[in-house]
Amino acid sequence: xxxxxxxxxxxxxxxxxxxxxxxxxxxxxxxxxxxxxxxxxxxxxxxxxxxxxxxxxxxxxxxxxxxxxxxxxxxxxxxxxxxxxxxxxxxxxxxxxxxxxxxxxxxxxxxxxxxxxxxxxxxxxxxxxxxxxxxxxxxxxxxxxxxxxxxxxxxxxxxxxxxxxxxxxxxxxxxxxxxxxxxxxxxxxxxxxxxxxxxxxxxxxxxxxxxxxxxxxxxxxxxxxxxxxxxxxxxxxxxxxxxxxxxxxxxxxxxxxxxxxxxxxxxxxxxxxxxxxxxxxxxxxxxxxxxxxxxxxxxxxxxxxxxxxxxxxxxxxxxxxxxxxxxxxxxxxxxxxxxxxx
Length: 342
Hints:
Strand content: 25-35%
Order of helices and strands: EEEEEEHEEHHEHEHEHEEEEHEEHH
Largest sheet: 7 strands, mixed
Number of helices: 9
Distance between the termini: 38 Å
Shape: flat
């Protein structure tokens, strides 16, 4: 999580989507004022692995325009802040790369998709947003992921100043539960950037959603910082590249952490007790929390063993794939401990 204050500005290069085979491919974004004017190519870029230089094969700008869904909280608690928030949202939309498809969802007592899919049309629709109502955060996020289904380069941006709650703050406002939201997000592959505004937003939910989706959580203290946060997200979308390089010939110790998770999925893991519930479910819940909390770019492999030993998920840094692998574990069969160790 990145907590921001006055003068906030992200700097440097952000790396994601690392795929390690004979050659290594990763995606990187130039995210500050000094680097965003640079056009990386094989003549002005160096890559090092374990202190040794790799041979760059290719660098190319991500040409596919992004499809962005922006969720804006207009619940009653936004009274007095909505005008400044909409000004920041307008600047964000205007700064998106050309040909970006953009949709805006206004959510209070219910999420509402505004008219338009171009920057020009959506800017007009923003004028329709009025303050009032409850906060259906979970329902809005689920609508956002639905709108981004089948898109080649989806991005979901979530802005809220509070927690999912009804008008009286006595229960949640959404039809969907938190558990249903997290379960659904494990099945989609969409980076989610969450922005918590002010002091009362749901830090746990917003940071968890961002972490598990390979997005990012921002805590914006005021409207000035909110504008800077929107600018930071914009920079990521506009200045992103894919790079492929040959690994150094001399073997080196990687500076990326590696974790191998081996899980017993034999029949006994399906046993249930009133005090602890089903064993395999408990293990899945623990692994979900463990994976979400791992440092970014940690390499992880998941293996299960029962009668046989099988790799459920090969080595990856993609937490979305790892969470799907954990969710697919099913209890049944014997216990091949020796095979799992081998």
